[in-house]
Amino acid sequence: MSQVVSYELHGNIGVISVNNPPVNALAQVVREGILNAVQQAQGDASEAIVLRCEGRTFIAGADITEFGKPPKSPGLPEVLSEIENSSKPVIAAIHGTALGGGFEVTLACHYRCAIASARVGLPEVNLGLLPGAGGTQRVPRIAGVKAALDMITSGKPVPAPKAKEMGLIDEIVEGDDLQAAAISYAGELLNAGAPLKRVRDITIDPESIEPGFFESARKNLAKRARGQIAQDRIVSCIEAAVNLPMDEGLQRERELFSELVTSPESAAMRHIFFAERQAAKIKDLPKDTAQRPINKVAIIGGGTMGGGIAMCFANVDIPVVMVEINDDALERGLGIIRKNYSITVKKGKMSEEHMNSRLELISGTTDYADISDVDLVIEAVFENLDLKKEIFAKLDATCKQGAILATNTSYQDVDAIANATQRPEDVLGLHFFSPANVMKLLEVVRGEKTADDVLATSMAIGKKIGKICALSRVCYGFIGNRMLSGYGREAQMLLLDGCTPTQVDSTLEKFGMAMGPLAMGDLAGLDVGYKARQSRTDLPDDPKLFRMGTVLVEMDRLGQKTGAGYYKYDPETRARLADPEVEALIKEEAAKLDIEQREISEEEILQRCFYPLINEGALILEEGIAQRPSDIDVVYVYGYAFPVAKGGPMFYADQVGLKNVYDKICEFRDRYGEDYWKPAPLLKELAEKGSSFAEWAAEQA
Ligand code: CAA
Hints:
By secondary structure, this protein is an alpha/beta fold. The chain is built from 29 helices and 19 strands. The longest helix is centred in the C-terminal third of the chain and has 21 residues, at 602-622.
C-alpha cells in the first residue's frame, strides 16, 4: 500500500483512507494506492468497501500540477473502472469538497454518502478543461441532461442536500464521525441486500431531449465564452452521453479532454489558478505571522464604493458601521445598500429574511466617537489627499489602539496618509474595485511602515470576504491603474491614426476583454479620466495625448450617462451604436494635428494597447511594486477583466515571446517617440537573454 492510501478491515467492511494533504489531490501515488486497495479488498473478508479521506476534505480533484507533464500510470479511468467493477459495493464517504476527479471517483462508486456540509462539483471548466474521468457521462445519467449541463458548464459546486435531491448523493449521514457513519450505512446496505448499483447501466432516452436543445445550449454558452472552448466541448460530451453507449461516450470524453489539456487556454487558466493562491502570500512575511481579530468594521463614506464595501463584510456576518457627514448622506448611503440587496432578492438569489439579517448588521452614524471600538476602518471618501489626511488624523484620535486604518484610495500616496497619524504602522491601502460587492480583486497596499500583522490580517480578511488579494507597494495608481494609463492612451491614439472606436473595441473584445477601453470609458464617464488628467503634472505636453477624450468631454458627450460618448446609446435598449458624427470628428481632429490616417491591422491594435501594459508591468517588477509577474496577472484578470484564457498580461507576454514584445516596443519608440514608448530595462534584459517573466520569477523565488 502507498504511504498516502491505507486500507484496513473494520469487521466485514474494508475501509480505504486517502491522506494526501492539503486537499487529497489525485496524484499518481493516490491513484495507485486506491487501485491496490480495491484489488486487495476483492480477496479478503470484507463484504463492502468504504472510500474516505483524512484531513479537511474529500479528494478535491486531479493533481493540477501533473497536467502538461507525461502521464503516469495508473490513469484515473483505470482506477475508476476497478472501483466500478468491484464485486463488493464501494461506498464513497464525502466531507469537505469532492471536486473534479474526486467527484468522479465517487460517481464510479456504487453508493455515495456525505455529511450535510459537504459539496460536490465538477469545476474543470474553470481550468479550461472538462471532467475527464466519466463526469460528463455519469452526471447526465443520474441527474438528467439539463442539470448536468448546468453543473458542468458553470463549474459551481452543489451542497450535499441539493445533490441528494438531484440523485447524485444517496444518503446524508449525521454525526461527527463520518467513518463510523459510513461503515454503519454500508452495513445497512448489506442487510437490505442492496444491489451493486452502477451508473453506467443507466441509459438516457434520446427522445426525452427536446429537439434543438444542444444547439441552443451551444449558442447561449458561446455568448459568454470569451475565447474559451471548454464549454463547447462539454456540450459535445453530454450529447455523446445521450447518443452513444457508455464506453464510446467515455472514449469521446477522453479525446476532448486530451484536446483541452494541451490547449493554450487551459495552460493559461491553470497558471491563474496557482497565481491566485500565490498572490495571497507575502514573500518576506513568516507564515505564522500573528493576526489581529476583526469583529467589527467601520466604513468612512457611504457612496457607491463605501456601500459596496459594507456589503462585503455584512455578507460574512461582520457588523459594519457606516460614517457619513450628515443624516441625509447617511440615509442615502444606507438606501443604496437596501436597494442593492433588494435587487438580489427580486432576482431570487437571496431570501427576504437573509436580506434583513444582513441589513441588521449595517448601522450608520455621523459621529466618529461611535467607531472608537472597531477593529478595522476603511476610508472610502472621494480622491482628495487633504481630506483623507484630515480623516486619518481624526481616526487616529478616535480609534482604539490596534485598530487597522485602511484607505480605499485608487491613486493617493498611502504613506502621506499614514503619516497624518501617530501610528503609520497600522495604516495601509485596501483598494477595492467597483462594484465592491461584486468585483473579486482587492489590492492590498503596503505602506513604508505598515506592520507585518496588519498585512497578514488584511490578506486573511480579504480572503474571508471572498476577495482575491494581491500585494502592491505604494506608487501612483498602484499595480492596476498605473499600468492602465498606457492602455487607455493608445486606444485613443489609434483613433487619430485611423481606427474607428468600434474597430478598437471589437478587436480587444474578440481577444477576450469583457469590454473595449473606449466603451469602458463611456461606461465609467469620460469626465472621470478628464478630471484625473487635469490634476496630473507628469504627462507630456502633447495635443495628441487623450485628444478625443478631451474633445468629447468638452462637447458634453460624457458617455452612457449623457447618452453619447465615443458611441451613441439607444435611449430604450441602451445598446451601443457606432456614431458617424464621432467618426467624422476623429478625422477632423487628425487633420488638425497633421496626422495622416491609415488602415490599422488587428495585430497592431493588440500590440499598441497591450504592450504598454506589459512594459509598465516590467517597470513595476523592477521597482518591487509587485512581488511577482503572476500577481500582476491576477490583478488584471480579476480587477480589469483581462481574459483568464490568456492568463493575464505578463503570461501573455511570455507566450508572445519577450523578444518579440521588446522589438515591437522599440519599433513604436522609433515611430512615436520615447515619451510614450520607452522599453523597461527588465524587459530589455530578459528579451536579450531569451528569457521570460516566468523564468525571472523562478530565479527571484
Ligand atoms: N491539485 C494540486 N494542488 C491543489 C489542488 C489540485 N487539484 N487543489 C488545491 N491545490 C493546492 C493549492 O494550490 C494550495 O496550494 P498552496 O497551499 O501551496 O498554495 C493548496 O492546495 C490549498 O488550496 P486552497 O488555498 O485553494 O485551499 P482552500 O481550502 O481555499 O480551497 C479547494 C480548497 C476548494 C479544494 C480549492 O483548492 C479548489 O477549488 N481546488 C481545485 C479543485 C479543482 O479544480 N479540481 C478539479 C481538478 S481537474 C480534474 O479533476 C480533471 C479531471 O477530470 C480528472
